Here is the input.
Amino acid sequence: MTPIEPDLSIQNLSFSYPEYPSVASRQLFNGLSLQLPAGNIAVLLARPDQGKTTLCRVLAGLIPRFTGGEVEGEVRLGAVRLLGQDPFRLIDQVGLVFQHPGEQLLTSRCDAEIAFALESLGLGRSEIQQRVTGALQAMNLDRYRFQSPKVLSGGEKKKLLIACLLAVDPRLWLLDETLEELDRGTKTQLLELLKDRGRSTLILSAKWHDIFKDTANLIYLMEGGQVRPVREKPGSVDFHKLLLKRGFVLPEEQSTPEHPSSLTRAVTSKVATAQTDTLLEARDLFFSYEEGGAEAASPFTLRIDRLRLPTGKILAVVGDNGSGKSTLGRLLCGLLTPGGGEIRIRRGGVLQPAAAQDLNRFTGYLFQDPDLQIFLPTVFEELALGMRRRHLSREEISRRVQKTLSLFGLPAGEAPPSLMSYGARKKLQAGVYYLLDRPLMIIDEGDSGLSVDDFARMIGIFRKEDGTVIFITHDFRLARALADEVLELKAGRLV
Amino acid sequence: MITQVYGKKGPSAFHRYDPRAKIVLLLAFLSLFFLPIPVGRLGAYLAVVLLVTGVFLGILNILRPIRLILPILILVVLLTPPFHRYGPVLVSIRGFSLLSVPGLMETLRLIVRFTGITVLFYLFLGTTDQENLILAFRWFGLPFTFSLILGIALEYIPTILILYSQVQDAHRLRRADAEPVSEQAHPAGRTPAGGGRSRGEAKGLFRRLAGAIPVLTSVIVLSVRRIPTLAMALETRGVGRKNRRGSYRSLKSGRSLLIDGMIALAVVAALSGSVVLFH
Here is the structure.
């Protein structure tokens, strides 16, 4: 396919959200400019809270349409002015994958989900069917064709949304942290597809992925409401230093108990002194969604012969989308009941069989979607809830909340979580469980939407409180750097 | 979860039955439950609906929708008799009528009506997916936006219930800490932060009801928060465009529609006949 000539041009973009009660208006972009030549893939690196999602939504016409706020400047895609356009008029020009995939899914069948926008464009039936089939095949989702998107894992939902865009094939792709939660194979496949099609692509990420090195034509940094191109060559020492300084990568060297790296030292410093008692053990663990009575009509089964977690250790669970990582996490915290096998936890120095309720009390589980665990109007209320239930004094609650705000780098206590960025909401979710002080923390895709140093800091905080941590990720490099042990799941089995 | 809410999707004859004919049957049965006919006969119609549901979705599945509306049925039982205290008295305390014959009849009527409507929707939605539903509405000439809103609204019921289940999980994990915990539950004698202890929680139904309030509140908050993102999602898929909408697929026409339509009309005729005959 011939690359389309006109490019994305953002000139002096300024944007402020409107004032909300207790939240002053803040200028998010201030004279932001960016040029993306046609057919190029650009990576825009930014730490959480810098406005990645807002920028995507401004370009897609969703902001300020749905949020209000003041926007100024000039944004063009070729000859088309994007600012002020209705989003539905732009769907063949600008395609956006939301950071939180569950929010963008509309139908009860995967094929219908892909067909939806094509129907809106008024295409003929045979063409729609052809494009739907092609997109499902390209994203390896054929087997889910007639299934509800609701039964897909987080990563698979993202793959489905990518398939939706592949079918429409807009000239500008906006990928808002889309590579998070995708397995390496899918990331590679996606970027190669975009390169082959010659589509202009803007990838927004809080993390540097190695795959960018060979696929991205341009790299930008966004901070302080502005964007600047990175002049350093990817792979060079200077480039690596820059990424390291901004917290987009972990140090090159691998962390081992004997030779911890500088950044991971805080996380792994306990290794030498950690107890080696088994904190949790699972034997012959079996779960089937049908047997377990959960939603999936798919025949997915998880079978773990033996899993041993020593006290004070960090275990990473990696694997492709839909391999059963979250299912394992939910079994270990008692939210799912195994169809067979046993989970034992250490109580009073002895390993004892644990029922679901015991696991609920023993384990903290950070859901993949932070919004399912955040409900209250302010950060303070959210953090204080658990302590209020335990009837701690007002002073004690206030002291602990202040400490947690500072530890996790959270905004002020009166900030409303619903107006915070996705990454900040993840930190708040972690803060809530930090205050619950469970012996075992399970963090499901906690690195998604966070910079690597933020995530490493989060793991380090849990570790320092004598905690044992299991974190689920797609990032093998991160897993190797931060964990004492890495487990890989493939189609519900340990590799 | 979808299958838990609306019953198990399966390859039964009613699952394959044409959704347009199902809509006709749904409307006919719904009208029936609103007609001023004796309670006994309403009960007979309800029995037919329950039988059909049991046959096509499984006997145990009949209980699911009834369980969902049980709190409302309890309220009906408690609140209806006091408003119908005239007529022959069945139960009274010191001359104060607690339950009269008309009160009992009205309570039964409301229970049958409410159960019938709920089970009908359960049967209809449990055997018809959202896409077919939208196609059926469009076949009847309803505009796409209207069909989409209906489809999304109906699909939103299981979505809310999924959300409820997820939020309940989140609350269970957070609340577990405030419940009495033995020292043994924490290795090496660790106690929860602050070493605070919860007061004993009330047990039984009250505890469950009290526990449901924060979950319900959270679900409402999350649902409201999702409205703008749902609107954004719809517009990024082209909802709002004025051009003629394409169609990925359509419902089958021809012989199968004819047969299913004839069956639906025959059932509607039989229902009308029974109403007239026994009037």
